[in-house]
Amino acid sequence: MTPDEERLLRRAIELAGEARAAGDPPFGSLLADAAGNVLAEERNTTITGGDISAHPELKLARWAARELDPATAAATTMFTSCQPCGMCTGAIRRSGLGRVVYALAEEQLDALKPGGGWPEVPQEGPALYDEARAAVEGYYT
Ligand SMILES: [Zn+2]
Protein backbone atom coordinates (compact mmCIF):
# COMPACT_ATOMS: atom_id res chain seq x y z
CA MET A 1 0.00 0.00 0.00
CA THR A 2 1.37 3.42 -0.96
CA PRO A 3 1.59 6.33 1.52
CA ASP A 4 -1.23 8.07 -0.39
CA GLU A 5 -3.41 4.96 -0.06
CA GLU A 6 -2.64 4.80 3.66
CA ARG A 7 -3.70 8.45 3.97
CA LEU A 8 -7.01 7.66 2.25
CA LEU A 9 -7.59 4.60 4.43
CA ARG A 10 -6.87 6.69 7.55
CA ARG A 11 -9.49 9.18 6.37
CA ALA A 12 -12.01 6.32 6.11
CA ILE A 13 -11.16 5.35 9.70
CA GLU A 14 -11.60 8.99 10.70
CA LEU A 15 -15.08 8.92 9.13
CA ALA A 16 -15.80 5.81 11.23
CA GLY A 17 -14.95 7.87 14.31
CA GLU A 18 -17.29 10.62 13.14
CA ALA A 19 -20.08 8.07 12.75
CA ARG A 20 -19.49 6.79 16.27
CA ALA A 21 -19.44 10.32 17.68
CA ALA A 22 -22.78 10.98 15.97
CA GLY A 23 -24.37 7.93 17.60
CA ASP A 24 -24.07 5.51 14.71
CA PRO A 25 -22.06 2.30 14.27
CA PRO A 26 -18.37 3.13 13.66
CA PHE A 27 -17.87 2.71 9.93
CA GLY A 28 -16.68 5.12 7.24
CA SER A 29 -15.74 4.93 3.58
CA LEU A 30 -14.65 7.12 0.70
CA LEU A 31 -14.30 6.82 -3.04
CA ALA A 32 -11.12 8.04 -4.74
CA ASP A 33 -10.16 8.34 -8.39
CA ALA A 34 -6.95 6.88 -9.85
CA ALA A 35 -4.99 10.01 -8.88
CA GLY A 36 -6.13 9.71 -5.25
CA ASN A 37 -8.62 12.57 -5.38
CA VAL A 38 -11.57 12.00 -3.05
CA LEU A 39 -14.81 11.94 -5.06
CA ALA A 40 -17.23 11.24 -2.21
CA GLU A 41 -17.25 10.33 1.49
CA GLU A 42 -19.86 8.59 3.61
CA ARG A 43 -20.30 7.27 7.09
CA ASN A 44 -22.72 4.83 8.65
CA THR A 45 -26.11 6.38 9.53
CA THR A 46 -28.13 3.25 10.30
CA ILE A 47 -29.26 4.46 13.72
CA THR A 48 -29.69 8.21 13.20
CA GLY A 49 -31.28 7.60 9.79
CA GLY A 50 -33.43 4.67 10.91
CA ASP A 51 -32.26 2.66 7.88
CA ILE A 52 -30.59 -0.74 8.27
CA SER A 53 -29.08 -0.38 4.79
CA ALA A 54 -27.34 2.97 5.45
CA HIS A 55 -23.83 1.52 5.34
CA PRO A 56 -21.26 3.91 3.87
CA GLU A 57 -20.11 1.40 1.25
CA LEU A 58 -23.67 0.91 -0.03
CA LYS A 59 -24.30 4.65 -0.13
CA LEU A 60 -21.11 5.20 -2.13
CA ALA A 61 -21.89 2.35 -4.53
CA ARG A 62 -25.33 3.83 -5.19
CA TRP A 63 -23.78 7.29 -5.65
CA ALA A 64 -21.19 5.96 -8.12
CA ALA A 65 -23.78 4.06 -10.17
CA ARG A 66 -25.93 7.19 -10.34
CA GLU A 67 -23.26 9.86 -10.87
CA LEU A 68 -20.28 8.23 -12.66
CA ASP A 69 -20.00 6.77 -16.14
CA PRO A 70 -18.86 3.13 -16.19
CA ALA A 71 -15.24 3.92 -17.18
CA THR A 72 -14.89 6.48 -14.40
CA ALA A 73 -16.43 4.11 -11.85
CA ALA A 74 -14.07 1.32 -12.92
CA ALA A 75 -11.10 3.61 -12.25
CA THR A 76 -12.13 4.32 -8.65
CA THR A 77 -11.01 2.70 -5.42
CA MET A 78 -13.19 2.51 -2.32
CA PHE A 79 -11.27 2.96 0.92
CA THR A 80 -13.27 1.67 3.84
CA SER A 81 -12.69 1.25 7.55
CA CYS A 82 -13.96 -2.33 7.50
CA GLN A 83 -14.32 -5.08 4.92
CA PRO A 84 -17.69 -4.60 3.19
CA CYS A 85 -20.54 -6.86 4.34
CA GLY A 86 -22.45 -9.11 1.96
CA MET A 87 -25.09 -6.46 1.24
CA CYS A 88 -22.47 -3.86 0.34
CA THR A 89 -20.33 -6.31 -1.63
CA GLY A 90 -23.30 -6.99 -3.89
CA ALA A 91 -23.90 -3.27 -4.43
CA ILE A 92 -20.20 -2.64 -5.08
CA ARG A 93 -20.17 -5.35 -7.75
CA ARG A 94 -23.28 -3.93 -9.41
CA SER A 95 -21.90 -0.38 -9.33
CA GLY A 96 -18.78 -1.34 -11.29
CA LEU A 97 -16.23 0.13 -8.89
CA GLY A 98 -12.66 -0.86 -9.68
CA ARG A 99 -11.23 -1.88 -6.31
CA VAL A 100 -11.80 -1.93 -2.55
CA VAL A 101 -9.14 -1.36 0.12
CA TYR A 102 -10.25 -2.06 3.68
CA ALA A 103 -8.74 -1.76 7.15
CA LEU A 104 -10.45 -4.25 9.50
CA ALA A 105 -11.25 -7.67 8.06
CA GLU A 106 -14.73 -9.10 8.70
CA GLU A 107 -13.30 -11.69 11.10
CA GLN A 108 -11.40 -8.97 12.99
CA LEU A 109 -14.63 -6.98 13.31
CA ASP A 110 -16.58 -10.01 14.49
CA ALA A 111 -13.94 -10.59 17.19
CA LEU A 112 -14.72 -7.10 18.52
CA LYS A 113 -18.49 -7.72 18.66
CA PRO A 114 -20.02 -9.83 21.43
CA GLY A 115 -21.87 -12.59 19.60
CA GLY A 116 -20.79 -10.96 16.32
CA GLY A 117 -22.24 -11.61 12.90
CA TRP A 118 -25.81 -12.03 11.72
CA PRO A 119 -27.96 -15.17 11.83
CA GLU A 120 -28.57 -17.07 8.62
CA VAL A 121 -32.14 -16.87 7.30
CA PRO A 122 -33.48 -20.06 5.75
CA GLN A 123 -34.33 -19.78 2.05
CA GLU A 124 -36.60 -22.16 0.16
CA GLY A 125 -36.72 -22.66 -3.60
CA PRO A 126 -36.62 -22.91 -6.51
CA ALA A 127 -40.38 -23.26 -7.00
CA LEU A 128 -43.03 -22.43 -9.62
CA TYR A 129 -40.38 -22.44 -12.32
CA ASP A 130 -42.66 -22.11 -15.35
CA GLU A 131 -44.58 -19.14 -13.92
CA ALA A 132 -41.47 -17.39 -12.65
CA ARG A 133 -39.57 -18.00 -15.89
CA ALA A 134 -42.37 -16.42 -17.94
CA ALA A 135 -41.91 -13.12 -16.07
CA VAL A 136 -38.20 -13.01 -16.93
CA GLU A 137 -37.93 -14.82 -20.27
CA GLY A 138 -36.94 -12.48 -23.10
CA TYR A 139 -36.07 -9.56 -20.87
CA TYR A 140 -32.31 -9.95 -21.20
CA THR A 141 -32.16 -10.65 -24.94
ZN1 LIG B 1 -22.38 -3.17 4.53
UniProtKB/TrEMBL annotation:
<protein>
    <submittedName>
        <fullName>Nucleoside deaminase</fullName>
    </submittedName>
</protein>
<dbReference type="InterPro" id="IPR016193">
    <property type="entry name" value="Cytidine_deaminase-like"/>
</dbReference>
<dbReference type="Pfam" id="PF00383">
    <property type="entry name" value="dCMP_cyt_deam_1"/>
</dbReference>
<dbReference type="InterPro" id="IPR002125">
    <property type="entry name" value="CMP_dCMP_dom"/>
</dbReference>
<feature type="domain" description="CMP/dCMP-type deaminase">
    <location>
        <begin position="3"/>
        <end position="120"/>
    </location>
</feature>
